[in-house]
Amino acid sequence: MQEFTLFVTFWVGFLGSFSHCIFMCGGFVSLQNLSNGKPNASLLIYQLSRIFAYILLGAFSGAFGSIFIASPKARATLFFVVGLVLVFIGVALFFRGTLLKFIENERLSRAITAKIFSLKGKNRLVNFAIFGFLNGLLPCGLVYYFLAQAILAAQPLKGALVMAVFGVSTLFSMLFLSYFLRILGERLRDFMFKISIFIVILNGIYLAFLGFMANG
C-alpha cells in the first residue's frame, strides 16, 4: 500500500508540476529570470531547500496522523475526513476560481517574489536557500493533497518520505522551467494538470469510502 501511495504521489506531482507548480511558484519564475533560465548552483540550492521544507512538513503531518492510529474508529474517521478534503481540493484546483484563491494565499507568493527580485546583484547561496525554504511553505492546493497523504502515513518518517517523493517529482520541471514553457503548449500542460487532478479526486473518493465502510 505504501509503495502504491508513493507511486501515485510521484505521478500526481510530476504531472501537476508542469502547470500548477510553475505558475504557483511565482518567486521561482522570477529567480529563473535572474539566472537567464539556466540551471545552476543557485537554482539547485533553491530547489533542494524547497524540498527540505516539504520534508519537514511531511514529518510533522505524519506525527499528527500517528495520533489516530491507536483507535480503529479514529483512523477510519481520519480516512473519511481526509478523503472529503481531497475531493474539495481537487474540485478547487480544477475550477481555479474563488475557492482556490481562498486556499492559496496569493499575497505570500507576491511577497516572496518581491524578495527574490531583491537578490539581483546579491548572488549568495544562503539567500537562495532561505527563499527556497519559504517557497516550500507557501499555501498550495497540490501541497495540501500530499500533506494529507503524509497524515495518513501516520509516521513521521513515512510522512517525510511522501513529501520527499513529491518534491523530487517536481524537481525536473522546475529546474528546466524555461525549456518546458517553450516546448509544452498551454493545452498540453492543462491536460497533464487535469489528469493529476482527476487522480486527486478519485483518491479522495476512495479514501472517504474506506473510512465510511470502516466506520459502518
From TrEMBL:
Keywords: Membrane, Transmembrane, Transmembrane helix
Domain of life: Bacteria
Residue ranges crossing the lipid bilayer per the database entry: 6-31, 51-70, 76-95, 125-147, 159-181, 193-214
Domain Urease accessory protein UreH-like transmembrane span(s) in chain numbering: 9-206
InterPro entries membership: UreH-like_TM_dom
A Pfam short name: DsbD_2
PANTHER family attached to this UniProt entry: HEAVY METAL TRANSPORTER (PTHR42208:SF1), HEAVY METAL TRANSPORTER-RELATED (PTHR42208)
Name recorded for this polypeptide: Sulfite exporter TauE/SafE family protein
Organism: Campylobacter gastrosuis
